[in-house]
Amino acid sequence: MTVYIDPPTWPGHGRMWSHLVSDVSYEELHAFAARIGCPPRAFERDHYDVPAARYASAVALGAVEVGSKEIVRRLIAAGLRRRKAPPAGDASVR
């Protein structure tokens, strides 16, 4: 089982956040996220948003520390990247 986490550098809701991903499957990702106490609502398309307070726990349980660009690269390489849908009525998507 290999999951990856980037540093908690993403601000939101008064906290800093990391992204947790798997390069194997969403099932692996969900199982690992549950082990570190991430609720299902923290899952967004292809990753979990992990608060900085849980970063050390994730690493202690085996998450590999990588940069944000590496997170995206691994998702794409594994075929697990799910991009945001364009806003409804976006004329640039035809």
Task: Tell me what the structure shows.
This protein has 94 residues and is of the alpha+beta class. The protein is built from 3 helices and 6 strands. Strands 1, 2, 3, 4, 5 and 6 form a 6-stranded mixed β-sheet that branches. The radius of gyration is 14 Å and the shape is globular. The termini are far apart.
Order of helices and strands: EEEHEEHEH
Mean pLDDT: 90
Class derived from helix and strand content: alpha+beta
Percentage of β-strand residues: 15-25%
| Cα-atom radius of gyration | 14 Å
Tally of DSSP β-strands: 6
Q: Residue share in helices?
A: 25-40%
Brief summary:
This protein has helices at about 25-35, 50-60, 70-80, and strands spanning about 5, 10, 15-20, 45, 45-50, 65.
Topology:
Elements: E1 3-5, E2 10-12, E3 15-22, H1 26-35, E4 43-44, E5 47-51, H2 52-60, E6 64-65, H3 68-78
Parallel strand pairs: 1-6
Antiparallel strand pairs: 1-3, 2-3, 3-5, 4-5
What descriptors fit this protein?
six-stranded mixed beta sheet, 3 helices, globular
